[in-house]
Amino acid sequence: MSDTTKSPLPREVADAYVDALVALDPVTGTYLGVKESSSSLPDTSPAGQEALAELARETLARLDEAERRPGADSDIERRCARLLRERLTAELAVHEADEGLRTVGNMHTSVHSVREVFTITPAGTEEDWAAITERLRAVPTALRGYRDSLALGLERKLYAGPRATATFVEQLTEWADTDGRGHGWFEEFASKGPDSLRPGLDEAARAATAAVVELRDWLREVYAPTVEGTPNTVGRERYARWARYFNGTDLDLDEAYAYGWSEYHRLLGEMKTEAEKVLPGAATPWVALAHLDEHGTHIEGVDEVRVWLQDLMDEAIEALDGTHFELAERVRKVESCIAPPGSAAAPYYTAPSADFSRPGRTWLPTMGQTRFPVYDLVSTWYHEGVPGHHLQLAQWAHVADDLSHYQATVGGVSANAEGWALYAERLMDELGFLTDPERRLGYLDAQMMRAVRVIIDIGMHLELEIPQDSPFHPGERWTPELAQEFFGSHSSRPADFVESELVRYLSMPGQAIGYKLGERAWLQGRENAKQRHGEAFDAKAWHMAALSQGSLGLDDLVDELSRL
């Protein structure tokens, strides 16, 4: 037998995994603030994917040993081991099903990661820009590796959906020519660099743009014709695999679908009440929201909306810190940013680096707009910024030394984080921050969007029947076309947003349901803790303990939240 007294504990195994992962994936290294990662990109080829999988297998074997070591059953080691085992098992299931050979979409591909990492790569010094130049030179190889993965998928008849493929081709076209004059995104990015490095920067940026064009042309001329006629949806087996990956639990998909409908009916009633305050006699809540698009409170100007969103987050921090949360000084800093052209339509958040040298940032895609309705922004920034993603992910970074580096960073479960952010929106409503009818109707509209996501994401991928009590096509079976129509008629978002969202759901099956199902897990955990403590329940203490335990899949999350 092996001597378990000499083997590492689970947290040590997890952190060794992070170190090895950074060596294989410099994009992850940059997100973690590892300066040495700035000059390179990961191997996106089939061989690179297999190297990541082998690291996961080796780590799981080491974890088996670590869990037998004395002390491995402490709360902090147990939580880390639960997360590491669940995450690596879910990732291996996706890899071993060859999903990485047909990953095409408008958000969740290695090509998107390659572009987006430049927006957070350090760029303050000439040395930083020298590293960026080397990273730009690595773009063609990274894009070829991605193409090699898709080509192997074609050989094995593992096809992505035609709709996601067409959208991705459109995105690559925009990245290759952002200004309509042949000036690509990488060239625009490189133009901000120092003149002393100009020749090398420009040459590397042009090569990166040429690689984007080459990939775009291959997708358009080879890949798209081959996958034509492939279903855009994935079916129950593939959906269940991806749902485990994004949610950290083996879901009862039919129960989750029914829950989505129950939330739809509850929210619709609340929306009708608020809509009557906004526009008396409005036929539907979305008529009232359309009225707000024209006549409601607006922010004019792109930079003006960036500043307004910054003020909104700063005000939330001042109101919540010391009353409902206890925030470290470095967690109190978050930056409002405008997303680069060619991004997906949805706002997003990027976490701070491990040492907080790069702060947490919220990103608003403007989609060419210069006028922004307030109702559509407030609860969204409670979600993306404070008390949503920023408070959770920055707190993880703040307490990383008490957890493991893995729990605070790369071990994140999408449904945990998105569930917290949606819970944060609801918390702000509970605390009285959304009493204005415009803002509260906007909040309910955002909640409705998350309920609709559960319905259509599960419904269309599994081709489920629409219930008889539905006001929309009762008794029919879901298709992407019906899903888009339903989303459009139950959302204040413009048509291009709805289109972008639907492609996202088609190419990231099981991810979008994590918002509402994750919120349910957070609410259940809080309710269980309340019942356990009775009148002694301290919401502020519970929130901070909950935010300081790192990531967990939804099954484990409810269990651990209930213990706090």
Automatic annotation (TrEMBL):
InterPro entries, per the entry: DUF885 (IPR010281)
Identification of the protein by name: DUF885 domain-containing protein
Organism, as annotated: Streptomyces nodosus
Top-level taxon of the source organism: Bacteria
